[in-house]
Amino acid sequence: MSRSYPERQLLSYDLGTALVPPSAVVAVGEPGAATQMTWQVSGMGILAHTALWGSVREAGQLWAAQREAGAERPCVVAWLGYHPPGPWGALTGRNALRGGARLARHLEGWFASSDRIGGPRPHTAVEAHSYGTVVAARALQILQRRRPPRTLDVLVVSGAVGLPADLAADPEALGLREDQVYFALTETDYLSRAGLWLSRRRPWSRMTRLDTGADAARNLAGAAGHNTSRHRPDSGLFGRGHGYRDVGTASLYRIARATAGLPLD
Length: 265
Prior knowledge:
The protein is an alpha/beta fold. It contains six helices and eight strands; from the N terminus they run E-E-E-H-E-H-E-H-E-H-E-H-E-H. The chain has helices spanning 48-69, 94-117, 132-144, 165-169, 190-199, 250-260; strands spanning 8-14, 23-28, 36-41, 74-80, 123-129, 154-158, 181-184, 208-210. The model has no long low-confidence stretch (mean pLDDT 92).
């Protein structure tokens, strides 16, 4: 992991049970001093006991991209706080309901802590991938039902596998305007499209699309496929291409700016 990343802090860890795997929440940066706070939610099969290091590295990559974009004191949280499903479980909404409720509780705790500290509230965003986009949507729905409602500043989804029918029919339930929801999808993300079709969820409609293609003017690579990280220069054929959160991609460049509340270009 790059030495340029700030100190990592373990905010939560649950050992799990024989049936439920461990969960973890790790912050890259200092939450109490953050000017921009981003919660990063991953999708199916991303487990704390097998993918925590890589998830925290992705949080560090987003932190560095936000700093490069001009964010003053960003903090990015790698949120592996729910039981992610496997491929078949991703076609149902059960894990998303449970995971969304847990994410909502953690976000509420963050808002309450920020209120106690006082001063301007940090710009707060959720950046979610794959099945994590369904978890994030359910969390926002729960936060909107609170009295008073709690609202994020930005939601960024990549490789989304569809929106539950009740939310697609009532986009106001997320509490965000179209210009606060950003959507990234590569041309070759066939897994996302298959998940949408097989799950019978609805497409995201009220959103601002993020360009994931190569940007020659900025020397940024285009993303390909469904993964968040896939670039392995020395691993041969299967290491070719870049994922949504890989360093040096147009997708990470724009995700960083969207989550930090900065202009996309």
